[in-house]
C-alpha cells in the first residue's frame, strides 16, 4: 500500500444546540506514504476539522457522522473511529502526531517545555523502567530541540509564554517528532510568522520529510507554499473536496475553476502582477449552502446545470475533479 | 390641510408602530425563555402585590390580645403575631417598602457605576487610575461593618437613605467591569470607524457604547436588587435601622426578638417573611439567569 | 563610579523581579490609609455627649470631680474635641502607630487590643474552618460537575446552588438555630465552649470548641459552598475550551491525567485570589452571624458596640479587621504570582 491514511466518505457535524453544522461532507481522500499532501482552502472550509478526525480529537461538539478513517501502519489497516479509548491513546502521537494551528495555546501554560515532553514520553513508555524512561526522554528532547535549531539548555526549563512565536512553532514541531510518528499533521505551521522564519521552518520540515521519511499532511491557505513544498494537493471548499491530484496535475491543468481561481489570486506564483485576480464573492456560509454546485455563485464559468445539479467526482487516474466541466 | 392631516396620521401610526416594536422587544427579553418567564412573573407578582395589595387587604395595627399567635387559617393565611395582628396583611403592607429600597439601591449603584466606569474607560490616564484605586478600596474593606457604622451615624428612617447606604458597596465591582468592557469596545473596529468618521463623543457614548453594555447593566441591576434586600434585612436584624414595622426584615426582627425562635406557636411569624424573601430572591436570580441566556447567547454545548 | 553604577543596576534588576509585589503592596498601603481616614471620620462625628457621659462614668467610678474626670477622659481617649482637626488627626495617627487601638468607653475602659486578643481567635477559628471546608468541597464538586453535566448529582447540585443563592446566610443561620439549638436541642444556642471544661490545648476543650462552632460553620458553609462550586464551574468551563486540552488528548494522554494536571490545576489557580476576597466577605458577615448564634467572637462584640454607640471599639475592630483582610489579599496576590508562571516571569 502506498497510502498511509485513507478517508472514506467522511462526514463530520458540529452538533450545536439548535442545528448541526456540516463542517466536512462526504470526503474521500488518500494520504500518500512518505509524501507531503497539502490540504488547501479558504478559512472555514473544514481543513482543521478533517485533519483532527484522523486523531479523533475533533473539538467538541464535533462528531463523525459517517465514513471511516483507515490507518495503514504496518500490515492490517486500523479503523481509527472504531478504536477503544486506550487503543486510541496508544495510537495517538506514536503513529500520527499533529502541530496544532496556533501553537501558542497548544501547551499547558503552567508546565515547563521539558516537563510536557517528558510527560508524553512517559505515558507512551509505561513498560520501560521509570528512571530509564526519564533518561531517554531527556536525551530525545535534547536531540529534537537541536534538530529544530533551538538551544535545549535554554528552552527546556522555559514556560510556554516565554517563547516567541517562531520558537513555539519549532518547539511544537520537535514535540510532534517525540515518538517517531509515521505521519505528521501540520495545521498552518507558518501563519502569523514573518517571511524569513517561514522559510526557515519549511527548511526544517523538508528535512523531516526527506531525512526521516515521515509523511506529512500540510493544512494551509497559502498556495505558494503548496507549489514549493507539497507533492499532492487536495482543495476543499465549504466542507467538500473539490479537487485532488499531484501538484503538477492541479497546477498545470487547472481543471477546476476554484483551484484555478486560488492559483491565480496568488501574487507570488505570477510574474505579472496585473494578471492577478482575486476570486469574486466571499466564502460560503455552510449553514445554508447554495443548491447545485456550491461554488456556482462565485464561479466565472457557471452554467445552467451548475445551479441545479451537484457535480459528481470525475476521476482521471487518481486526479479527482468535482466539476461539471470535467465531464468531457 | 388634508395633506397635513395625512402626515399627522402617518406620524401617529409610525409612533404606535415603534411603540409596538419596542414592547415586542421588551417581551422577547423578559419572556424569552422559561427562566425569564418564571422570574418576570415572580417580580410582577410582588410589584402588583406592593401596588394594589394594601387596598385589597388593608392592614390595621390594632392590637387584639385574644388573637395572639393564631395558626394559619382562611382569615389569617399566615396566622397572627404576638399582638394578634394578621401576618399576611403585614407582609402585603411591607412589600412596596422592600421593593422600593431594592429598586432605589439598584438604580443608584448602576448610575454611579455607569458614570464612573464609562468616564474611567473613556478618559483613561490619571483619572482612570484613581477610579480604579477607589474601586479597589471599596472591594477590599469589609462591607457590613461599614454599613453598620453608616447606619449608626445617619439615622436611617426612609428608603432613600437606606438605598444610599446600601449602594456604597455595590457599585465598585460593576464599575470595574463596565470600565473594562468600555476599554475593549473602544479597541473594536466599529468604534475606530466612528472616530475616523469624526462622530461626536456624545454619539459614540450614547449610540454605540451604552447599548453594548446595556445587557450587562440590566442583569446587574437585578443582582444589586437582590443584594440590597439581603443587606437591608441584615441591618434590620442587627437593630441599627429603625424602620417601617411592616417591612419583611422588620417583621422577621420583631419575631426573632419576641421569642419566635423558641416558641413553636410562632414559627409561622418567623417563616412567613423568610418565605417571601426567599421566593423574591429566587425569582430575581432565575430572571437574571434567563436574561443572561437571552442577551448573551453562547454556544455552550456540553 | 562604574562599580557603583553596576551594583545599583544589579539591585534594580533584583527588585524589578518583584515589581508586581511592590505594586500590590503600594495599593494595599493606600487602601489602609483610606480605612484609617474612614475610622477617623467616625471618631470626629462622635456626638459631644459621648465624652461627657464617659467622664461622668469615670467621676462616679473613681470618685473624682467632674472637671478632673473630663481631663482624665480626654487623656485616656487621647482625644480632645476642642483641638483643631489636624491636631486631633495627628494624635490619632500617633496612637495607632504605637499599636494602640483605643479603649472602650462603655465596658470599664477595657482596651480594644485586649478585646481583640480575646475574641479574634474564635472568629478566625470559625471562619478559617468554614472557608477551608467550602473551598475544598466546592472546587471538588465544581470540577466534577463540569464534565459530568447530566448526572443526578449535578442536577442536585444545581438545585442547591439556586436555593443557597436565594436564602441569605444569616436567614439560614436563623433556621439552623431555631431547629437544631432550640427545637431539637442538639447543639448549644450560645457561647464558644463549655464553661465546665478548662481552656487549654486539650482534646476535650478542642472538641468542645468544635461542637459549639458547628452551627456557625454549617451556616457559613451553606452559603460559601455554592459560591466556590460556581466559581470552579466557570473557571473549569473556560479551561475546557482551551486548545491545550485538545492538544493533550491528541498526544494520547489518558483522560484522568488531563483532568488532574491540565484542567484542575489551571482552573484552581485563578481562584486563589478569590480566596482572599471570600475571607474578607466572611469577616464582614461575622457581626450578623455571630449575633444570631450568640457566638462571642469579634463580630458579636462589633455589633454590640454599634448598638451601644461604643465608638472606640467600633473603630478599633473595623481597623484591625481591615488590616487583616488587606493583608490576606496581599498574601493571596503574592502566592498567585508565585504559582502562576505567567505572572511570575512575564517580561
Ligand atoms: N468547535 C466548534 N464548534 C462549532 N463549530 C465549529 C467548531 N470548530 C469549527 N467549527 C466550524 O466548522 C467549520 C470548519 O472549521 P475549520 O476549523 O475546520 O476550518 P478551517 O478550514 O480549519 O479554517 P481556518 O483556515 O480558519 O483554520 C467552520 O464553519 C467553523 O465555524
Ligand atoms: Mg483551521
How would you briefly describe this protein structure?
The complex is a heterotrimer of chains A (328), B (302) and C (347). Chain A is of the alpha/beta class.
Secondary structure: number of strands of chain C? 0
Strand content of chain B: under 5%
| Radius of gyration computed on alpha carbons of chain B | 24 Å
Total E-strand runs of chain B = 0
Shape of chain B: globular
Mean pLDDT of chain B comes to 81
Specify the helix fraction band of chain B. Answer: over 70%
Major sheet description of chain B: none
Q: What do these coordinates show?
A:
- The complex is a heterotrimer of chains A (328), B (302) and C (347).
- Chain A is of the alpha/beta class.
- Chain A is 32% helix and 25% strand.
- Chain A has 11 helices and 12 strands.
- In chain A, strand 4 (62-72) and strand 5 (77-79) form a beta hairpin.
- The mean pLDDT of chain A is 88.
- Chain B is 75% helix and 0% strand.
- Mean pLDDT of chain B is 81; it is low at 298-302.
- Chain B is built from 11 helices and no strands.
- Chain B starts with a helix and ends in a 7-residue tail after the last helix.
- Helix content of chain C is 79%, strand content 0%.
- Chain C contains 15 helices and no strands.
- Chain C has helices at 2-17, 19-44, 49-62, 66-77, 85-97, 112-147, 152-166, 169-183, 203-240, 243-250, 255-268, 271-293, 298-308, 311-339, 341-344.
- The longest helix of chain C has 38 residues, at 203-240.
- The two termini of chain C are 29 Å apart.
- The mean pLDDT of chain C is 84.
- Classes of the chains: A alpha/beta (328), B mainly alpha (302), C mainly alpha (347).
- The A-B interface holds A 15-17, 60-61 and B 299, 301-302.
- The structure holds adenosine-5'-triphosphate and magnesium ion (MG).
